[in-house]
Write a structure and sequence with these properties.
InterPro entries: Glyco_trans_2-like, Nucleotide-diphossugar_trans. Pfam families: Glycos_transf_2. This is GT2 family (WcaE). This protein is of the alpha/beta class and 318 residues long. The radius of gyration is 20 Å and the shape is globular. Strand 2, helix 2 and strand 3 form a beta-alpha-beta unit. Strands 1, 2, 3, 4, 5, 6, 7, 8, 9 and 10 form a ten-stranded mixed β-sheet that branches. Helix 9 packs antiparallel against helix 10. The chain is built from twelve helices and ten strands. The chain folds into two domains: 206 residues, Spore Coat Polysaccharide Biosynthesis Protein SpsA, Chain A, CATH 3.90.550; 100 residues, no CATH class.
Length: 318
């Protein structure tokens, strides 16, 4: 019934644990497609040790093209009626597949609850969930801002997709280096008629320390975020649910992430610091010229932080 796609790139050290978690699934009617995106740490050696009696799986290797391309290969090769995605360095609960099958039965998209976990301390950072509910599309749009702010709409790991829709509409992940999950979801939202949500936690998204892919500076972060935010604005306008408060809040968060980048690079004494600082000042001119944030619509604490970032007070931190 379900295909679970696992993109792999130089994270073989997590595979033993993930494979055991697949063994522990309460559901049995699923396959796992491991897509090796040109790893150099020999994940195939671990995957070849999988017990065929415990797990239906396939291993596919391709030249390194990025996580989006690996997931696209998984979509193309999937034989299940529905698709789910797992990153090797996260953790899935024994109910991950079973609850996924349950939540998608009467809808075009299933959304499940998840936890954010500090991987170093193995401590809960935050919990993301919604009530158990089935929405027709009009109701989904009415609740869109609240769902967006709950962070349930960004990622692919807490969702179940209809493979027929993906393949019929030829929807695939973009080549964006960052935020490709968000764009994929936003495009999928345009193709569906119904959404089902469950408050059952099935996934643990692991937050790792400094030096991981999510904490490295590449220089294109703002371009990726800007592109995705523009898509969001277009989506809200097309469906007549534009929310200026939501848009302003997330523009301010986009700027805050770039502000944090510069501060971290400064603290590390990184050679990229001066470039990042100069780039941040250029981003500020875009924010001011395009009037991206309606300051009075921000929550009080966020308003104070935003004013620090966009005034001369930012020199204290940069």
């Amino acid at each position: 019934m379900i295909t679970v796609v696992v993109p792999i790139y130089n994270n073989a050290r997590f595979l033993d644990s993930l494979i055991r978690q697949f063994y522990q699934q309460t559901a049995s009617d699923f396959e796992v497609v491991f897509v090796d995106d040109g790893s150099t740490d020999n994940p195939q050696k671990i995957i070849n040790q999988i017990d065929d009696d415990k797990l239906i799986y396939r291993y596919i290797r391709q030249n390194n093209q990025g996580v989006g391309a690996a997931r696209n290969t998984g979509i193309d090769q999937a034989q299940g009626q529905y698709l789910m995605f797992v990153d090797p360095d996260d953790q899935i609960m024994p109910n991950f597949v079973a609850e996924g099958a349950n939540v998608i039965k009467k809808a075009d998209l299933g959304i499940m609850a998840f936890d954010l976990i500090d991987a170093q301390q193995n401590q809960l950072i935050s919990h993301h969930q919604w009530k158990n509910v089935e929405y027709q599309y009009s109701d989904f749009l009415k609740n869109f801002s609240s769902l967006y702010n709950s962070e349930l709409l960004f990622s692919v790991f807490n969702k179940v997709y209809d493979a027929k829709i993906l393949k019929r509409q030829q929807l695939r992940f973009s080549k964006l280096r960052m935020g490709e999950d968000f764009l994929f979801n936003m495009q999928y939202f345009d193709l569906i008629d119904s959404v089902s949500l469950t408050d059952v936690v099935t996934y643990r998204y692991m937050i790792y320390g400094e030096g991981t892919a999510t904490t490295s500076f590449h220089g294109d972060e703002f371009d990726c975020s800007y592109s995705n935010q523009q898509y969001l604005i277009d989506f809200l306008n097309r469906h007549n649910v534009y929310d200026e408060k939501l848009v302003s809040l997330h523009w301010s968060l986009i700027l805050a992430y770039r502000f944090a980048d510069v501060r971290k690079l400064k603290q590390r004494g990184s050679k990229e610091y001066h470039f990042a600082r100069s780039q941040f000042l250029e981003i500020l001119t875009i924010f001011k010229k395009e009037r991206l944030v309606k300051v009075m619509l921000l929550p009080p604490v966020r308003m104070m932080k935003y004013l620090v970032m966009v005034t001369k007070l930012n020199r204290v931190f940069l």
